[in-house]
Amino acid sequence: MFESLSDRLGKIFSGITGRGALSEADVQAALREVRRALIEADVSLEVVRAFTEQVGQRAVGAEVTRSVKPGQQVIKIVHDELVAVLGEEASPISLNAPAPVPILMVGLQGSGKTTTTGKIAKRLKDKQGKRVLLASLDTRRPAAMEQLKTLGGQIGVDVLEIVPNQSAVEIAKRAISSARTGGYDVVMLDTAGRTHIDEELMAETAEIKRVSNPHEILLVVDSLTGQDAVNLARSFDTRVDVTGIVLTRVDGDGRGGAALSMRAATGKPIKLIGVGEKMDALEDFHPKRIADRILGMGDIVSLVEKAAANVTAEDAQKMAKKLKKGQFDLDDLKGQLEQMKKMGGMASLMKMMPGMGAMAKNLPADRTNDKMFDRQIAIIQSMTRKEREKPDLLNASRRKRIASGAGVEVSEINKLIKMHRQMADMMKKVSRGGAGGLASMFGG
Ligand code: GDP
């Protein structure tokens, strides 16, 4: 499921480059592509519109978290919105009602209703140790009744005895009372399907609902029907107020549009997905995992979430090693500057270092340092390897050469060298346990 959508989005996000806050143009360009990708995935138009609007609002001008690229930030936003559209939390079948708990299965003929009834029954029996009674209410198709009977035999679940010439409502009543007297935990009613929705079907379903008072009404929908599935879900929901949706044939659905539309269109959770014909091919629907799968980028999402903390911790460790050895040349300074720039400033790095959290508060706000870091890095890059290793070599003529190489004033070179010297001194102090004077170092 979702392979094509995932591919498309991957290409879009890799195209967003640049740094800093997300520009309106970046976001709009990405959203155009996202919109196209969703439409190609057969997501309903109104869902596409609502979705892209939401993402747009959150993305334009969004502060890009330190140490992640804007493209990654957009992925995170799209991911979060996908999770919201798909329903946030997983929504398992509830059995929180007096036994026998009635579960009503509704949906069109061929949607996989009977198969899904069997799958759920097997799962309740095997995983939760429940005693389940199955009943087919499909009075028009004797074959359907036989199918459920055979299925019950296969999975070792009891099926209500077939009595000819009873109406669906009569069978429902009989199923409930049999389940009660038989001491069953759950009674599942597999209603008749049609090839399309009609008033008769809806009226019958509503009447069955009235007499059986189901705790769950699960609408079974073939995900391959795409847009039609949305209209179907709406009609059923308006009429019988379903409690959840089971999407079937998700194993054959590379686009996945139905899943995205369904929840948004009905507000009802997708509880389970059918992923094959076998009786155990049933999975819980986890919005977050599905969103990960759609984007094919779960790693990036967690990276964005943990970016600052993880990266800085790692770098702080490296720095601590340097401190211990008492070494700190201009290459190290450059490395530090690059890190700081990446992480949005000295403050975030210092927060990770033991004893420096309080001092970090006094430093200038993060990204204002970006340009300064760039200039300082350029200065160091204009030095030879020897000069970087031995800053003492930097006499007046060398400083002049470096200044013109980096396109800055000599005074900036002097400042940088002074900063390095202070920093190296400070390093020594820090490694001995103190940490004085650091805050003054990044004055400008
Ligand atoms: P019903 O008319 O709604 O009761 O549909 P059935 O349960 O008879 O299913 C129709 C066909 O769909 C059967 O051949 C099932 O094996 C198949 N089917 C049901 N669910 C799935 C699924 O999740 N994946 C696949 N690949 N096939 C399924």
UniProtKB/TrEMBL annotation:
Membrane topology: Peripheral membrane protein
Residue ranges the record marks as coiled coil: none
The enzyme's E.C. designation: 3.6.5.4
Catalysis performed (reactions): GTP + H2O = GDP + phosphate + H(+)
Molecular function terms from GO: 7S RNA binding; GTP binding; GTPase activity
CC annotations in GO: plasma membrane; signal recognition particle
UniProt keyword list: Cytoplasm, GTP-binding, Hydrolase, Nucleotide-binding, Ribonucleoprotein, RNA-binding, Signal recognition particle
UniProt cross-references to Pfam families, sorted A to Z: SRP54 (PF00448), SRP54_N (PF02881), SRP_SPB (PF02978)
GO terms under biological process: SRP-dependent cotranslational protein targeting to membrane
Top-level class of the enzyme under EC nomenclature: hydrolase
PROSITE patterns hit by this protein: SRP54
Xref: SUPFAM superfamilies: P-loop containing nucleoside triphosphate hydrolases, Signal peptide-binding domain
Domain SRP54-type proteins GTP-binding: 269-282
Family, per entry: Belongs to the GTP-binding SRP family. SRP54 subfamily.
Protein name, as recorded: Signal recognition particle protein
Organism of derivation: Pelagibacterium luteolum
Gene transcribed to yield this protein: ffh
